[in-house]
Protein 1
Amino acid sequence: MELSTLTYMVVGATFALYIGIAIWARAGTTGEFYVAGKGVHPVANGMATAADWMSAASFISMAGLIAFKGYDASVYLMGWTGGYVLLAMLLAPYLRKFGKFTVPEFIGDRYYSQAARIVAVICLIVASITYVIGQMKGIGVAFSRFLETSYEVGLYSGMGIVFIYAVLGGMKGITYTQIAQYVVLIFAYTVPAIFISLQITGNPLPQFGLGGSVEGGTHLLATLDKVLVDLGFAEYTAMKGTSLNMALLTLSLMIGTAGLPHVIVRFFTVPKVADARKSAGWALVFIAILYTTAPAVGAMSFFNLINTVQPDMQNRAETSLQYEDRPEWFSNWEKTGLLTHDDKNGDGRIQYRASKEENELTVDRDIMVMANPEIASLPNWVVALVVAGGLAAALSTAAGLLMAISSAVSHDLVKGVFNPGISEKGELLTARVAMAGAIAVAGWFGLHPPGFAAQVVALAFGLAASSIFPALMMGIFYKRMNNAGAIAGMLTGLSATLIYIFWFKGWFFIPGTEMAANNASNWFMGIQPESFGAIGALINFAVAFAVSKVTAPPPEHIQHLVEDIRVPKGAGAATGH
């Protein structure tokens, strides 16, 4: 069966499944729409959380980063998984005990201020919109190649699917849809990885295949190191960035993880506080399956790419692939514009080199996972499965993000601030209209993404780290923190991070800023924009603490509330204290 036909069948079947689940789990109340009625089992919630978390950046882009950046990309593995430990230990149980629907609602009540709630909504929307742009990029990449449509048509198709099951089912529908999407994406990620690991190293477990040997008896990573050095690149296993930048990027991703509203709200959907901890633990288990496989997928996909364009690894300069002899997968991806060849020296060969002047091959990092099964000549059903998995990853996270945006607008702004007397039916309608609007905005930005998926997502994590995480942490663990401090901290942290990102991404449209954009030599102390969220968080903490010290303390009942959040029920009962 032709690949396009098979892909339409597999993807169509998964879409039908998602929509069917949304109809079955249609939300009828605000509680079901916002937090799935607080009745989700911890294991099911862990699986849904994993799908919500493992976005297009995890499925499509992370292995592409590892493929081209090697060791330096390990920060994404450490940051994104380490953040869940912080979330499980420091935030999830306490926020669930507080018992609200949304993160801005917690901030508004904890800091006894509608202004704080509005600022939290602004921070949430900025971070979530940035995050969802990355998902839209992933959707466009998957559709454009395998469903043989343009990037724009692929993006619109994905938006339509999300609109149907997210608007219809709310959090209840999204939760059960995400469980199905997790099964699809994890199966789609591991099956081709097992096939390719067997091909290259003879080991069926990709995690062990990464440390295995290729044909000829040399280690896979040692082979990549040698080839890249011969082509003018740094060793695959060498650290290229500065230690400071890598540490800050890891920290930014970690605390950004713990501050992401669409992930936090998942812990509001379980029946008990203890279930929030269990959900986080199960989520880590389900996430680990993909995250321990990703380094092998990245290294092996890059190995296959190099073997394609430089067939003779002992004599690469003379045996670069003739362009006219390029394989079918190469020409197929050329049609999308995500892989290009520019014959600079006119010799008719594909030269892949470190020097920009000599390099003739440009590969969008987001295609590596999607192209890998084709490069390895795997059966068409495996290729179709990967497409379905990539779309499941992008759609699941997009739905969670849009849910967070929708609830922030309808519950926190409309009901919480502007129209407290709105009926439940009116609030549900407002939530669905807000979600439709969020989908339209996200789609527009997705047509003009500022970078590859994982890069855009890393920016979103930095924004969450610099704005929301400090307010949550101080709200739980520092009862002296008042509304003035929290508001000042969130605004300064978010503003500082936005300014740094916009300046060094060249988005100010001010003459001269294009010289600073993406130029590491201009970064402050070598800190890339994706890493600045950690600095923004420190600014947030410092400003909030300083302002709270010179302004009035919170009311007594708020300080007692903070203590009650942290103390388990029944504490002191045995001793009478």
Protein 2
Amino acid sequence: MFGDVLLAGNSRVLSMPNEDMTRPFFYWFPFGFGELKKGHLVLWNPHNYAGAAYFGGFGPALLYPPNWLHMVLPTAFAINVGIALHLFLAGVWVYFWTLHRRLHPAACILAGLIFMFCGAHFLQIYRGHLHCLTTLTWAPLIFLAIDGVLQTFSLTWILLGMAAVAMQILAGHVQYIFYTAIIAGIYALAGWLKSGGRLREAAALASIYAGGASLSAVQLFTGLQAASESHRTGISYGVASSFAFPPENLLTLILPGFFGDMVNTPYWGRWTLTEMSLFIGTAPFLLSVCGLVHGEKAVKRFSLTMALIVMILAVGDYTPLFKILYDHVPGFQNFRGTTKFTVLAALFIVMLVAVGFDHLLKTQRAPRWLAATALVAGGMVIAAGALLVRDCNAGGGDLWTPALTRMRFLDDAYRDFVLTRGPASMRACVNAGRSLWIGGGTLLLLGLLLIAARKSPRFVYAIGIIGVVEVMVYARYTRPTFDPAPLVNRGAVLRRLLAESGAGESRIASQDPYSYVAMGAGALDLWGADPTVLGRYARFIALTQGWPLDAILVTSGLRTLSPLLGMLRLRYVLRIDREQVTLQPTHLKELPRALLVPHWRVLPTPENVLDALRDPTFDPERAVLLESDPGLVPAESDERGQVSVRDVSTEVIEISADVPQPSILVITDNYSASWQATPLGGSDGRTYRVMPANSLLRAIPLTAGHHHLRLEYRPTALAVGTWVTILSLVAYAAVGGLQVRRVLRDTVRDRRSP
């Protein structure tokens, strides 16, 4: 699957170009791990969104051990190795999880391979959702630990579960951490009630997440503090309900290309195929049906129930349940894209696949009804494909167009697709028919193999092999790569252009998908693709662009050059046309990095400040809008002093100022409550307070005199989390060491006993 990018010296990177891999990740890793290699944990990212939390944003995953490959390997190769490693580990954990259910080893291998290459999991590579892959890898290990605790109540399982939870938190995708915790909680509760509901097991199950959170507290606590200032703290229902799994995409379970394949036929269904595909293969689907009928009751019922629960959550607001969860369950208001539950649903589906294959392997006699079902279904699906292709060739008037325009349950997107894109619609129609042919043909082949397996059990293995071939062929077919050289070259060109222009500390405004080129050039950008954008910044940008103030910044970039953007030192708009990089001047009135302003107004709420910014006469050089009393006595004079700023690191600034009268020192970078100011030698001030200025900038009230201070981004949660993690690691190592010693002692004793 990955030999061309791992073994042949190929420098190409796994992922589609201009997706997430070419935006944050390819630039995040050299920046963050380059600094970590020097011993510096980057807390603040000055390069995007006028500054934002970096380590606390979870995504860079600086303390996630597998990511430390980036400190020893080139970025492109480290990304590819990381993807292959996590895909393999996910398969291994599924293997052990299913093996714990005492299923046939071949069935467990099949389950692991199907999960590795199934659509919901593998297509994350297409979009470059690297932290989705790394976070999901640990979900089956968490479920395995829960099973182990309920079945044997061994300390080993508790420790294993803690490690898996900690690794998932450190891996960095907050939404998958949250969703996995929900499903793990339901899974543990159901298993606990089934096992008798004893208090001891309940405490052990709770300790898995409590211990995992403690081990990763340095990341978790810092991230939660950063999230409290994020623009995603409570999003609107319309945004939260978007990107739900559309029910019609259940067809992708066995027909992965019915709505397009993103290679030869563009996806024409709802949202994006990379997160709307459930493909597990026709043979595995047939095996899951066999598992539902013939599997052990406890296993099949439990797996089916969990798969149904997770899929109900995945379809989001297509059911009334989502509104209840949004209104009453903390956390659901902070995320969009409930379709992400489908990967967790796939875990329970592949468990049913393993149960069905286990039955065929152990009985060595395929059921007649299963063979007949495959043959009949195959014939019907092929006939449906033939009818659809015939209809397409005749213009689509009998089946295709009526289905997509008249059925009320279908979305307007389908109607628009038919009405406005006639030729493309007909090509999609033919592709859907051919997809039915492939699925039907596979079902016919499987029916024949099941008949043959009644005479020779060896044919059962052929069914498993076909299942693996199905998902692997589709995975390889939809596995793109890109050349990273242009990304590096764009950064080099931008660095040269900025040096020639004398931009200094001025900022640029980029457009997606080029919002991280500035980071590669060591420059400063007003845009990005980071979900943990500061809420104050998001509302300010929405104000300048005429968007609703609660809008999530998911558009392709700034469209309006509002004069207010001069407060953020915006000087150029970055334009990239293939490999041509240009800087277009904005001609805005640009503020300096730091300035002393002798006049200010105090407004009672942040909303009042935003309203005041709409006033076209507002001049940020003459007055500052504050949200609380700075504790200074204003002077009438307009006299200003001198101020100088020196960056010590990404999150530490040293400031010197000579102030002739009480003034507000304004730093034209993003404000966060975690920025703290402390006096240095020779300063006339004893204490300093950092306040929001003009809604989003940093302000420090200064009395008359000389000031020498240090401004540092220092989240209080970082210090607390660090100590919790250190103490937890010590306790974990001590308990783990004692447990290993006890297991070894018991093993030696068992070997010596007659």
Protein 3
Amino acid sequence: MKQYSGKKIILFLSLITMIFSFSLSPSEISLKGSVHEDLSCLDCHSEKGSHFSYNDKETKEYTKKVNCQECHEDTYSLYITKDIHGIALVNGNKEAPNCQNCHGSHNILPISDSANRMSRKNQPDTCKNCHGKAEFNKSQGIFQRNMISKYKESVHYKAINVGKKGATCTDCHNHHNIQPSISADSTVRREGIMKMCSTCHKKEAENYIRSAHYKALEHGNYDVPTCTTCHGGHDMGSFKNQNSAKGNLSQQSVCINCHENERMMARYGLDTVPVRSYKKSYHGLARLGSLDVSALCSDCHDPHKAFPKTNPLSRVHKDNLVETCGQCHGKVSKNFAKSYSHYKLLDNPGTKIESLVKNIYIILIIAVIGGMILFISIIWLWAIRQKIKNQRKLKQIRRINKFERISHIVLITTFILLVITGFALKFPESFWAKTIYSVGLTELVRKITHRISAVLMVVDMLVFGFYIVLFKRGRGLLFEILPKKRDFTDFFKTITFLLKGNKRKLQPRYGVFNFGEKFEFWALIWGTVIMLISGMILWFPKLIPETWPSWVFSIAGIVHYFEAILATLAIIIWHFFFVIFHPDEYPMNTSWLTGYITEKEAKHRFEEDAIIKMKLANKKTKKEKNN
């Protein structure tokens, strides 16, 4: 039999004892460094049990073993009688947190320890275990979303992160006595939130208590702002530290959100004149336009001491205006300070003079600019008549027949109506849309006009389609307007000519239709098909099969809108240039009116073969008419 030395036996027994002692004394390991380091296992895991009970066997066994009440009787009593979590726990809500969920079990560290679950920096992560779940919040009737992530972006948590003072979850919501916001004892109730904020922001709270806003709040007015109305809740921001343009604009929007609401202001005998006049003033225009430095609402009206202007303490009281304006403008006179006001009394002599000057200029602008437009229009129309008159004196070639001109006029008319009635819906606040709405273009009229114009355009395009298929001249036009290989060479020849200068030998001449005209024609066909399909989906959504995905409707709206923008810009920029503003065409290409171009123009633009084709097509047309 193998013999073991006494030393080995002692070592083996010591190892067994150590393992056995670990299994019996977790406090020596897991409680080390915790606030309960001096306690024994039985101080917590006794047979007295807990008042909490669940159907779940594992949880029930666990809660029987732990009883925090033995040492924390007052806190425990407060928690289960006042705290929304404790009350829910007692009533059998399994999702409600118990002591261990927030504070831990064996590893409860001192609150000053940065690793403590409820330390100022770790609180949001502890609360996140429940309130970071959208479904949980929804199930508990909590309507705010992303509370934890928003809080971590707030000025409070950012301050804590850098070792400064900042509010944590329990600073605002309390601890062991957390009440729902609707409760009269809640620290975040609308009427009492200012008191909670005053623990850190004493001066601001004192000023707010003296303001008109707080006086109204005391009387149960829920329209007036509180701390969180302006600064936010979990996403609390500091306007003081927001020197950026975006921050300043948001600061301004806080006031505008309420004071621009006509219905809300009317309830208290107020109006929206201050906001409307501010937006039209230099301060408002500079702020809303370039976001540059200019006066905000809070610069003239103290944000916390919101006194009416009749109050001697108000910054905009007549005796304080010079000082208020002087904050930005330096030393100013009383008249300068009075020159800026949201309101003008009707019996103010200055107002009558301002109104007179304004009306004179309005009449002057209408008369002068209107006269200019009228005179220029007469010159332009005269130039068109002269061009047509001069063309008739020369040899001409028919470019467009009567049917083609009529089709083109219908296309122009329906296109313009579609653009006006379509964009009037998309941009109802634009000055031109307001103008046509004011003269009787109701939504019903707009909608009917838009749809009739669309139908007429489609009919016009279909008739023209039959024309280019059934008639010989039409088939000839279709053949000529089909894309060909020479269009690419013509394009590069044109670019070369334009870049190298006016060398006659380099000037290209084209077929019956050049590459630009072909591009326009096929873009028109493509755009019409796209607008027709998307428009029909928007017009008759009930006809769309139920098997089609829902995004079809939103895609149809996007396509219809952006295709309309593309078509409108293409007509204004490309088509109008080549038929109106091109130096060779100004004041206008008149062939769409007369149907003719001169032989001189034809020789300048077309190659000889194209001119022969146009002449032959016209002869055939005349012969067909005679027959």
Protein 4
Amino acid sequence: MKKLCMIVVIEFISRVLFAQEPVVCYVSLKGSDNNSGSIEKPFASIYKAQEYIRHQRSIKPGNFTVILRGGVYELAKPISFNSQLDPDESGPIEFKAYPGEKVTISGGKILTGTWVKVPDHPSVWKLNLTSTFDIVPHFRSLFRNGTRLQRASSDTLISDGPLPQFARLYKVYDFAALNQLEKNSLNVLSCFKYSDHDLDDLTDIDDAEALVYGSWEASWNRIYKIDKEHKAIYFRNPASYPDGFYPNPRIRYVIENSFDYLNKPGEWYFDAKGKNVFYYASSGENPNEVQFIAPVLDTILIAKGDGKANKLVSNIKFSNIDFSYSGSAWGVNEIHFGIPFIHQLHDSCVSENKKRYPWLDFTQGFSSFQAALGCGSAITLEACKNWTFDHCSFLHLGNYAIGIIDYSSDNTISNCYISDIGGGGIMIAFNAPGGKLKWLPESISPTGNKVLDCVINNCGVIFPSGVGIGVMQANHTLVRHNLIYNMPYVGISVGWTFSLTLDNYTTYNTIEYNNIHDVMEKLNDGGGIYTLGKQVGCLYKGNFIYNVRRANNSIGAHNNGFFFDVGSCVLKVDSNVVFNAANEDKRFNLTDSTKTEFGYNYWEKATPSNKALKDIIYKKVLK
């Protein structure tokens, strides 16, 4: 026995002493891509570091590290990985910040040129981008010294319902009628009446867009024309649902990016044709003395293996790095036609409708029937395994921060900070609503992924139906100890099947010990935690949910601590705390409490009087 122990000890010491040293290279904004990549002679770009590491991995497998010196790395194109250039058998790679230095990988670009005052508008300045910013046709976000600015915007307005000639074509929640409307009457989804004289004075509509709030979704619509005689506004692209589909036909909307509404300090307006940015300055402010950044890339990082061939991109880690400034998906128009199916407008539908309505332009706007999954993500992992993002920040992005999608497994997002996000925080999803698809392998469902100890807040700033964390058609996911707050819609959403009986991929997920508060701030028909469909083996335990809001003039069903939506069943809910929900603490739709296993939970309508009492409640439940 002693001899065996000695052999084990000697083997361990040998492995430690003779372990292969990691291959390390450095990147610095002061470097050159003609350098060797040493700390004394660093590379200048992340792309060159990737090229160097790929070459080293092709020579000999091992451990590889890319160390980034401090600064902002503006990308000309997304950082990309694939299974051909980054085979998973070649050893792990870590990208990390140099100790004590702040590193930002940016999909944005600093605006350059000279701002000049606009005649007859003493507070408005103009910057022409014709010669300096010709790489994108349009941008919908602008940041001043790291703070997101509001586009020139109307107040929140209320519609006056559908146009009279369309009102009889469908009823409230008439999903069946949507299929027919999609085929030959998309104009019904592209207009409504406005109230009183709200839009009578709107003249600048060349680049104007409307954010139209439904109940559980919101769409962006490019304005086509204003018919003042009939009080009608027409759009160039369809919404997912027409005005009048929800119980209250008076829906909220906001007009953005019209010079007519450029009237408050800090607002801006973009003239796409002339490539001019207009900015309303504060008293005494000179915009030439501050920094403005606009996003130029929708994607900052994309990794894509070959899931069908089981060739994955694996074992890559990012540590202590910020990812900032991405653009927003546009020209995504999804039509919902009969639960549980959803699809993007297909070619024949587009062609047929354009014949009838030649003003329609499907490259404009954005509509998505639920959770804004169509807006994509700044970081996308497809067919990836054993990726880690640890102590990273994701800020000022225009879509979801991170998407872990088809064929991806065992990836971890830990100790990260996600804030000021256009879409949602994190989506772990195979985006195919419904049951299992027999012609696809089980491995297409993301499996074994983790979101741990992250802070996620202020998402949905462009696409309000984005969720904090979405787990759709994924299995064995662990979502633990995350803080989620200040969300326009749902905190955590799990499930993507509108059925009590359909077997699906949303199985054996654990959602536990998350703190979710101040959610549902703009939309309705959701909750702190939202579930959908049959969920074999799923556990919701120890979550702390409070301050579930309901916005003024919002429409649709109630907002709850837990909302068990269509078909939610065979899941377990234990040791959770819910209080101060705008409506019921828990609610069921086309399911009921007998379909779920409930342990001991604490449900209260009112708000406990102080934080100490909240903590007492939480400890009591956990016992």
